[in-house]
């Protein structure tokens, strides 16, 4: 997203992608209203919505066998008041294709960053490994947007503050049928949490476990794991056999952390590289997009003038630290006070806050706002240079 915005503003950008394509499963696939609004502001919404996706206007859950309404996005003051579910590889391909219309954009695939190039205590580029041999790319600014296991932030020696997470998640996929129930995202039973995301022909499922509980779950055997899923989501009981082995299950080790300082001279980290998010609310990719918009708003002009200073990088962090901190604060509350307690409970009923959401529809606008828009939605302010091709 940042490369699209900067190339659109007339800045030369090189993106290094270590894989040959974007095709990785079980990544963040929720495109929230805040991100859809950015795409609208770029004039790309119609083309984007022509891609296959599923719309979700409301979130419900099943807690202790009781279905409850939690969030209603339809009242948000945006062009698209809903969440769009789309494979992340389709989203990234779309952004790359749009950026490729601008002459200053280059995407180099199978190019893995292995070191930072420094001169006089300043980062001036990166060294990469490619199929054709070593590559060095010099730049006025290096952006680390390489996720929660960021090589860039590690190479830069930036200090990470670990905020803790009491859960992990197991991702898997099961066939979806037309007669399956719709609407309920999360199912909460004593000691069990199961999330189902409608992906058209399949359900993308998350089985939430206590932190570090994966080895114990595997030791109990695949058959018991299938039975657990069938118990909490009975409509899937005739499909759990599709989990043929543990290779069909992907472990997400949940982390919530953030850098104390997102930048060094000549370098800036954004997205999960700056702040790893919990999967709670599916906000990670959307917070990263907001980072990109804010960074482009601050940096496009200085980059065009080749006059980026540490002050500009500090301005990006100041702008984005508040929404990052407050979002993580909410995620930690949900993890510790709700999810952790459900996993440790022996009996369960909807808590008071959820009962109020279910009873009073107007209250559902509050979680919808927090999930769908966040604490500081950004708007495209960076300039647009003429298209050359």
Shape: globular
Rg result: 22 Å
Q: Report, as a whole number of angstroms, the end-to-end distance.
A: 19 Å
Beta fraction: 25-35%
Instruction: Outline the biggest β-sheet.
Output: 7 strands, mixed
The strand count comes to 20
Number of helices: 11
Low-confidence regions: none
Biggest sheet strand order reads 5-4-14-15-16-13-17
What would you call the structural class?
A: alpha+beta
Short overview:
By secondary structure, the protein is of the alpha+beta class. 33% of the residues lie in helices and 26% in strands.
Q: Which key phrases capture this entry?
A:
single chain, 389 residues, alpha+beta, seven-stranded mixed sheet, three-stranded antiparallel sheet, 11 helices
What does this 3D model show about the protein?
α6 crosses α7. By secondary structure, this protein is an alpha+beta fold. It has helices at 2-8, 33-41, 45-49, 88-99, 151-156, 214-220, 222-232, 284-304, 310-344, 352-359, 365-372; strands at 13-16, 30-31, 54-56, 58-63, 66-72, 83-85, 105-108, 112-119, 122-130, 133-138, 142-144, 160-162, 167-175, 184-189, 192-198, 202-210, 250-252, 257-259, 263-264, 267-269. The longest helix has 35 residues, at 310-344. Helix content is 33%, strand content 26%.
Topology:
Blueprint: H1 2-8, E1 13-16, E2 30-31, H2 33-41, H3 45-49, E3 54-56, E4 58-63, E5 66-72, E6 83-85, H4 88-99, E7 105-108, E8 112-119, E9 122-130, E10 133-138, E11 142-144, H5 151-156, E12 160-162, E13 167-175, E14 184-189, E15 192-198, E16 202-210, H6 214-220, H7 222-232, E17 250-252, E18 257-259, E19 263-264, E20 267-269, H8 284-304, H9 310-344, H10 352-359, H11 365-372
Parallel strand pairs: 1-7, 4-14, 11-20
Antiparallel strand pairs: 2-6, 3-6, 4-5, 8-9, 9-10, 12-18, 13-16, 13-17, 14-15, 15-16, 19-20
Helix pairs in contact: 1-4, 6-7, 8-9
């Amino acid at each position: 997203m940042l490369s699209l915005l900067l190339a659109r503003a007339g800045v030369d950008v090189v993106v290094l992608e270590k894989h040959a394509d974007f095709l990785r499963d079980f990544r963040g696939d929720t495109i929230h209203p805040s991100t859809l609004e950015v795409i609208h502001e770029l004039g790309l919404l119609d083309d984007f919505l022509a891609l296959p996706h599923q719309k979700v206007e409301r979130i419900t859950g099943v807690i202790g066998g009781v279905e409850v309404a939690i969030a209603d996005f339809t009242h948000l003051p945006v062009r698209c008041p809903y969440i769009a579910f789309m494979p992340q590889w389709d989203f990234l391909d779309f952004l790359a294709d749009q950026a490729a219309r601008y002459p200053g954009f280059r995407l180099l695939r199978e190019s893995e960053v292995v070191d930072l190039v420094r001169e006089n205590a300043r980062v001036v580029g990166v060294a990469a490994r490619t199929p054709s041999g070593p590559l060095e790319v010099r730049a006025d600014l290096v952006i680390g947007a390489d996720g929660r296991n960021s090589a860039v932030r590690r190479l830069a020696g930036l200090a990470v503050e670990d905020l803790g997470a009491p859960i992990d998640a197991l991702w898997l996929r099961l066939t979806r049928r037309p007669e399956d129930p719709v609407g309920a995202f999360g199912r909460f039973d004593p000691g069990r949490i199961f999330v189902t995301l409608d992906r058209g022909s399949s359900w993308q499922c998350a089985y939430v476990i206590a932190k570090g509980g994966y080895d114990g779950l595997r030791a109990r055997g695949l058959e018991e794991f299938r039975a657990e899923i069938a118990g909490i989501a009975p409509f899937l009981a005739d499909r759990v056999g599709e989990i043929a082995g543990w290779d069909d299950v992907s472990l997400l080790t949940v982390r919530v952390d953030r850098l104390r300082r997102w930048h060094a001279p000549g370098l800036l980290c954004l997205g999960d590289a700056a702040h790893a998010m919990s999967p709670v609310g599916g906000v990670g990719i959307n917070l990263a997009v907001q980072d990109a918009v804010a960074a482009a708003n601050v940096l496009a002009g200085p980059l065009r003038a080749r006059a980026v200073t540490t002050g500009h990088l500090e301005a990006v962090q100041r702008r984005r630290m508040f929404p990052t901190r407050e979002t993580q604060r909410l995620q930690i509350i949900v993890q510790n006070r709700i999810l952790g307690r459900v996993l440790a409970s022996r009996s369960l009923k909807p808590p008071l806050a959820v009962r109020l959401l279910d009873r009073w529809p107007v209250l559902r606008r509050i979680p919808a706002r927090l999930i769908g828009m966040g604490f500081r939605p950004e708007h495209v302010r960076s300039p647009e240079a003429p298209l050359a091709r």
